[in-house]
Write a structure and sequence with these properties.
alpha/beta; FAD/NAD(P)-binding domain; D-Amino Acid Oxidase, Chain A, domain 2; 2 domains; 9-stranded mixed sheet; globular; binds glycine
């Protein structure tokens, strides 16, 4: 039986306390909305696994030009967002404007990277082609076999675990209420959403409900199929190594590589952590760290930076990216009054965090998404909305 919890009247309830839910709640609270985040363990989710690359140019994919515009807007937004969040919380985010070097190991890898460079250039993006020798001059730990690379000074990094911690703190400081409970479904009455139902039957009433539970956002009860965001889990396995002080600086910027067709990246933090990622596997809800996943990451990373096998391996972990049918996010209102969505960020959750907060707060307070976010309306996957 459902029990109504009148002690938590809210303007907005956000389902999911990962980075996307937290940033939405924080920015909504700053606009004066009474906001609740419902999550059994706020601060968890994919950001606990992610490497934190802010790399729209080196992560560019063919056919994703609209997403590129959003990602470029996001990377431009980062410095001011990071400064505001750090000032609000007193916590360091590990934001590092270090640039990225993308390198190639063999002739085929070089051809692939050359094509990417042509594509970047055709879109007016700034990326500088370097010879193998020039790459090694920048990063002396690179293998002698590196054939060439792309230097992209605008692709940066942040530490996602620190980002989550700061967002939790910012939410607390701005009066966001946390309900540490699982959400069973959305409470729908007539033709509008009016909050959520927790696992124990408690109803959290709210004027607006935001689904921001990452890859689990499509699993909620109470909604007809066509209103559930079509997200799927995309598994990523990641390693964390430690660079002892005597080896520092091991790498001075993010290094990505195509190694015999496989993609690997190394993200060095100022605190000595070195993140190596990531697999991309369509394995459903499985988050097992496998011998094969670790082997492939270490094999490719070792080929790229041979000295890496000397470093202590301190963590192996797997997480789930929320992938939508076009691998781009869903941001904004749905066809059901009072129901909004912020998920589907796939490879770009950390990068898109600040922008997502701004877009969702604007929509939650009655505004329209900015031009750059309009292609990412949740309605693009709802056939009846596409043709009205
Ligand atoms: N953006 C890096 C990844 O998803 O692995």
């Amino acid at each position: 039986m459902q029990r109504h919890d009148a002690s938590h009247p809210a303007d907005a309830v956000v389902v999911g306390g990962g980075i996307i839910g937290l940033v939405t709640a924080w920015r909504a609270a700053l606009r004066g909305l009474r906001t609740v985040v419902a999550d059994p363990e706020p601060g968890g989710g994919a950001a606990q696994v992610a490497a934190g690359m802010l790399a729209p140019v080196t992560e560019l994919q063919y056919g994703e030009q609209a997403l590129l515009d959003l990602n470029l807007a996001a990377v431009r937004r980062y410095p001011a967002f990071a400064a505001e969040l750090e000032e609000t919380t007193g916590l360091d985010l590990g934001y590092r404007a270090c640039g990225t070097l993308a390198v190639a190991l063999d002739a085929d890898d070089r051809a692939e990277l050359r094509e990417l460079h042509d594509f970047q250039t055709s879109l007016g993006l700034s990326a500088q082609w370097l010879s193998g020798r020039e790459c090694r001059r920048l990063e002396p730990m690179l293998a002698p076999g590196v054939r060439g690379g792309l230097r992209v000074d605008g692709d940066h990094q942040v530490d996602p675990r620190r980002l989550v911690a700061a967002l939790l703190r910012a939410c607390e400081l701005s009066g966001v209420v946390f309900r540490r409970a699982a959400v069973a479904g959305v409470d729908v009455a007539g033709d509008r959403a009016r909050g959520v139902v927790l696992d124990d039957g408690t109803v959290l009433a709210a004027g607006q409900t935001v689904l921001a539970a990452g890859s689990r956002s499509g699993l909620l009860g109470g909604l007809p199929e066509h209103l559930l965001p079509p997200v799927r889990p995309v598994k990523g396995q990641v390693l964390r190594l430690r660079v002892p002080a005597a080896y520092a600086p091991f790498l001075s910027r993010t290094v990505r590589a195509v190694v015999r067709g496989a993609h690997v990246y190394l993200v060095p933090r100022e605190n000595g952590e070195l993140v190596v990622g990531a697999t991309s596997e369509e394995m459903g809800w499985d988050t097992t760290v496998t011998a094969g996943g670790v082997y492939e990451l270490l094999r490719d990373a070792h080929e790229l930076v041979p000295g890496l096998t000397e470093l202590p391996l301190v963590e192996t972990v797997a997480g789930l990216r929320p992938g939508s049918p076009d691998n781009a996010p869903m941001l904004g209102r749905t066809a059901l009054d009072g129901l909004l969505v912020a998920t589907g960020h796939h490879r770009n959750g950390v990068l898109l965090t600040p922008l997502t907060g701004d877009v969702m707060a604007e929509v939650l307070t009655g505004g329209e998404p900015p031009e750059v976010a309009r292609p990412f309306s949740p309605g693009r996957f709802t056939p009846q909305e596409q043709y009205v």
